[in-house]
Amino acid sequence: MNKHVYFFGADKTEGNKEMKDLLGGKGANLAEMASLGIPVPPGFTITTETCAEFYEEGEKLSDAAIKEIDENLEKLEESMDMRFGDATNPLLLSVRSGAAVSMPGMMDTVLNLGLNDESIKGLIEKSGNERFAWDSYRRLVQMFGDVVMGVEHHYFEQILDTAKETKGVKFDTELSIEDLKEIVVKYKELIKEKVGKEFPTDAKEQLIMATEAVFGSWHNNRAKTYRRLNDIKGLKGTAVNAQVMVFGNMGETSGTGVFFTRDPATGENLFYGEYLMNAQGEDVVAGIRTPKPISTLKEILPEQYDELVEIYKKVENHYKDMQDMEFTIQEAKLYILQTRAGKRTAAAAVRCAVEMVDEGLIDEKTAVLRVDPNQLDQLLHKQLDPIAKKEHESLGKGLPASPGGAVGKIAFDNDTAVEMKKAGDTVVLVRNDTSPEDLIGMDAAVGILTAKGGMTSHAAVVARGMGKCCVSGLGEAKINEKAGTLELGGITFKEGDYITLDGTSGDVYEGKIPTTDPELSGDFGKLMIMADKFRKLGVRTNADTPKDSEQAIKFGAEGIGLCRTEHMFFEGERIKAVREMILSPDLDGRKKALAKIKPFQKDDFAALFKVMNGKPITIRLLDPPLHEFLPREEKDIIEIAGELNTTPEALKQKMSELHEVNPMLGHRGCRLGVTYPEITEMQAEAIFEAARDVAEAGTEVCPEVMVPLIGNVEELKNQKEIILAVAKKVLEGTDIDYLIGTMIEVPRAALTADLIAEEAEFFSFGTNDLTQMTLGFSRDDVGKFVPEYVEKGLLEKDPFQVLDQTGVGQLVKMAVEKGRSTKENLKIGICGEHGGEPSSVEFCHRIGLNYVSCSPFRVPIAKLAAAQAALKD
Amino acid sequence: MNKHVYFFGADKTEGNKEMKDLLGGKGANLAEMASLGIPVPPGFTITTETCAEFYEEGEKLSDAAIKEIDENLEKLEESMDMRFGDATNPLLLSVRSGAAVSMPGMMDTVLNLGLNDESIKGLIEKSGNERFAWDSYRRLVQMFGDVVMGVEHHYFEQILDTAKETKGVKFDTELSIEDLKEIVVKYKELIKEKVGKEFPTDAKEQLIMATEAVFGSWHNNRAKTYRRLNDIKGLKGTAVNAQVMVFGNMGETSGTGVFFTRDPATGENLFYGEYLMNAQGEDVVAGIRTPKPISTLKEILPEQYDELVEIYKKVENHYKDMQDMEFTIQEAKLYILQTRAGKRTAAAAVRCAVEMVDEGLIDEKTAVLRVDPNQLDQLLHKQLDPIAKKEHESLGKGLPASPGGAVGKIAFDNDTAVEMKKAGDTVVLVRNDTSPEDLIGMDAAVGILTAKGGMTSHAAVVARGMGKCCVSGLGEAKINEKAGTLELGGITFKEGDYITLDGTSGDVYEGKIPTTDPELSGDFGKLMIMADKFRKLGVRTNADTPKDSEQAIKFGAEGIGLCRTEHMFFEGERIKAVREMILSPDLDGRKKALAKIKPFQKDDFAALFKVMNGKPITIRLLDPPLHEFLPREEKDIIEIAGELNTTPEALKQKMSELHEVNPMLGHRGCRLGVTYPEITEMQAEAIFEAARDVAEAGTEVCPEVMVPLIGNVEELKNQKEIILAVAKKVLEGTDIDYLIGTMIEVPRAALTADLIAEEAEFFSFGTNDLTQMTLGFSRDDVGKFVPEYVEKGLLEKDPFQVLDQTGVGQLVKMAVEKGRSTKENLKIGICGEHGGEPSSVEFCHRIGLNYVSCSPFRVPIAKLAAAQAALKD
Lengths: 873, 873
Hints:
Low-confidence stretches of chain A: none
Number of strands of chain A: 33
Oligomer: homodimer
Largest sheet of chain A: 8 strands, mixed
Largest interface: A-B, 47 and 47 residues
Mean pLDDT of chain A: 91
Strand order of the largest sheet of chain A: 14-24-23-16-17-18-19-15
Distance between the termini of chain A: 35 Å
């Protein structure tokens, strides 16, 4: 067995920040600061290897470990010139856990170890503050009883509450010394009663028990589950940090505070923090007294202030990152208790990263790795004002389906939404769920709220594409679309009532909450330029309209990875022709209807080709089952039957014929193209004719025709033949290049990718559907069990948000390998929702995809994630 | 290049029956017979290698090949002492294709090659029958024009029809010599007009052209598609057989006939056949004259009859299989034209195989390989009388969902079906589709007809399990269940009308057709005993009731591989309690309802344990989504709301909450057990308590608890914990062994089988659902495109009937390998419908499964298929 214990403090420090595996993150940082000459309260770290040994020994510390602890304790007593558990000059210790990776479930802190009925006398004498000493003792017994001896927290709270009630006081601080003494006695009795053992009065025993409790918590269920779910392997255990206690509440030259080395909200390079004089750390947090800005410390304790400034600069310079630090001043002596990378807003993260490069503190690679791609979302959307938000209570929490804040008047149907928008109102569309019919209403709204559907429901996917706020799957909302009411949180909303959605958190509020505009500052642009230098993955966008495409290009999209042609089928005259086609009893009728649709499609494609100006556009052929285009409401059925010169009964009969038990697995995708080749033909004509016309007018075009839902290479052959025949006819005499490829979204397509690649010029993974089929999860229905799965730890994350690399990813990887085994340079991308999710983007990079495609508002996120993936490689 | 041409005939024969790759099946058999001394008309075979060479040479015969053809032609002329194309003693030839594997699309036969305006004179003279000679010539020109020169068949028919009309006659045979001459002239003009070339009068040219036409047909689209779909690879091409023509219509000592070496209907060992004197082969088939039984030939040509008997015995003895042979007697000289294995009924196949073993002709292995497992189905069900059936016209053809014949009165709902049965009628249940609610009606019926649903729809699966006839997916049937009408083939049936179903073919007939009873003769039993000696796969059954289980044991099932517990949920009081559970708003309510269901479940399991008497029973926990148990019809909703003390509105509200867009991928299987652990607990209690009680009463029990729809090992852990806790509680103090395992039916389960195997004691492949998810095919909806896929050649077979080995099979194989990589001796079976399909059974054997499980009536089929798979290994 190696050395069990590492000392830190002034010149005797044995560890450093590279030793996280052995000393844990906290221990390594304390050692590092001590080595830098930062005034850290001295102490020692018991290694993670000792934790492993603890389990080998049957959950107890070895004699060798105890011996080393004793030795280090002596060293500490020497260096402080105090004695642990001493009645005159008592040394007090804190004990904290600290693994290489921070995780929940580990044992909490125990403070004031070393206090007992004897040593408290010394503390009273030394501090000259009897109340402080007894309160410290009370805290020790409570914390120790709870976290080391396992007496539930609420029993202690009960005793404390009873005491306060009896005294008729509100705050702990109002209790007298006698009260505190009495509470300590009652706490001890409580422990005896619950555990059958006395609270240990021996200081050494306290230390050993606390240490063993920390080690014991390594294998508790919560920690184990967390490690398993997060795939944290290979850790030996947790370390234990025992450190000398310092007190900020020892009079007017004592105090405590926290600070950041830069402004964590804006990223500005300034000294940012707050403190309280004559106070303990808890008091800063408890909110009883209002802390003062750090700058005012200069007037009170100028020397210590200057020392702090010197320290913060030194530490930031050393760690080369913005730090979040804690300090305590005990009787005019400054101690730094902790340093760690500071949490920051997206804006601050971007500004810090970019400015630190300018300052020469970090290089561009580090800057790119410094910003969490997921955070960028905050910068790209209108947000609810965080301060104003605090004053409102959430009525309910749905899924955060599309980020940003939305405030508007409620509309329950598309027509009303459109009218209200025309009248100058901002509108929030409230529906049980949405279908492609609702595109007009969604377009008119600033936000969408649905009671049903998950993160990849129609509403969610479309809203993200539009960059609109959406809260989906708010099951507790009772929406009656016909009556025009929404019941939520005890309130009944009617049409025209104001409502506020927070698509970033999923919360819904009554009335109006102010919003803040997105801020794409210059730093954001600089960070994107850096990211572009490193990333290897291309980033495209999923867009169906010139408007979305323009937005995506602004965000840096390099092409369209998924244009869903059916989204063009819904507006005005088009939907009528589409319905006419569906209802035609024969080929001639269908062809006539298709001829009406074609000019619209052609115009749409031409507009996209112009906007994209030579960038590639992957156009997916018709994908959804035909019944999605038929009306659902009785009144619409009657109206449409009239328009189409048929009877409502005949229309209903057709609808019943088209009805499917599992539409997801039904007659859709290329299956439509196989049974109705005339649809494929029309779409190919529209694509190639548009490409030809735009090219003739002088704009470069790059069409990529994508056949959806292939499961069998024969399907692709069948569809390719039709497309090639059209291309030959339409593009004869031009030099337009085009590709024909396929979605890989059916598991069988991945399994037979080698065969499919013989016919395909590119693959694009439709990981939404691939996830549905590989996991057997209907994304419209998962709301019934996936939340419970996540809660019970059966699933770590919603697989529709974060790619399931173990399952679905295995198929994706297999398809890449098989596909390239028959076509070496096969171009491969991903166009599912996962294309904009950072961990999934990293996966795509790792398995060698050529590009990812995501909704316009996630393009910057994908770019940053791609750059990070390349840098981590 | 090797030898191009192989001669056969008497002592000069160069080939034999082992040379199928080179000479094709037909050529090899002709050579074999010639070698045996059988009087085969001599000829020669042009090899398959020559076919390959033909393509290498740019679709023409090489000089070397033509030279060899010439040499062999000379040899033939010598041996026959006749001259090809000669005006006085003309040799005539037939040309036929023949590859190693027979396939459609290849060029048809051309007869009478060598006839022209000169040689016909010789034929007239030699035969003394001018009409015969001209008719032969006419046939040559027609066949040659059609198959060699590509003039469509119907043009020739037109000329012939016009001639008959002009003459006012009905049959070809009524045309005069002059008529025939005129037709020959017109045929030649037709060829000239359509092809621009003359009909070749040179005999040699005819032969070369015919040979090239055969080779040319090797690469036609139909043949290529057939080879691709059937995965026929590595064939060099087709061979060509040129053979001397013999004629059975040269007078009273000539004749022609066909015979089998055993009775092809019963398998009885006797000389079975028929013949016509003074006739050509076509006349036997055409049905103008009635052929006579072969035994009567003994009186007319006793010498030739005896020769035939000698030959048939010799040939059967040589080939060791029942032969189907053709003969011609030309002027008292007997020729054998062909021999091949005879097509036979299932009964004949079984009897032949078993008796040939008894006779010492073949060994048991050969006998087992001799019977097509698919055919056995014929023996296991009541069938429509094949002769009576011919007199009826099919009104429509649905899917042959469950074999056998059913005759009964129509009922459109369950109650009526039950009442009619009580009244002593046999009932056919006619529904648009069925759901578990209809089990009672199906049980009361002898056959089921549905308009919707495929081969694995609820109706189909349940009917097969019950061994009842079922025709499903008869789309053209218009069924109005409320009005009680079925419209089909122009007839409107009402309740109580008689209808006949043929579940073996999918045909539906009006009225009553007699049926024949299944015949499980002693030979069948003997064959099964032989099969059991060789097979390595276990064979279990899918059964939920003691009745089905008993049936399956009679058929030789070795256990239950799938007991669907939800099938026990539907009867009487149970369904009420099940609905009460579903509608309970809280856990307490659910537990109360579950307590009512438990005694039923326990009794059901106890009954199964008793019947199975120690054989293993794999019990699957609740699988379908809960909404399947709720009523669908308005009147039932009202009634059930009353029973459950709730309102129809509340019931509908609950139903709408439970509604799923894609129930197949929804809240079902283990997902129910995870969100409602009390259901799993109740089922585990029922299983283990029943096992304990039955064991205590002295019957051995072997329960295997199967958790359905696992996609993630965490789900299995979760459910296993519940089951283990119950087992511990209930089985304490007993020595009952049990297993806990899982279905592999979600693609992700196959992909992560290594992880799942760590927790599972067995796997059972649910290939129905695995096929649905891997292919993205909803089995309830595939009727909209799968038939068209099969028709267009995009799919060879319905993947719900025959396992898709390329796609789904890949996942199955992967799961077996991964599963056994972490648990070496993992027991693995299959319980999807494929478990009773021979080619899928062979696949299961090959990849090392332990057992297959199928519906009771397919157990013998699976056993035979398993034995064959083991023998082929």
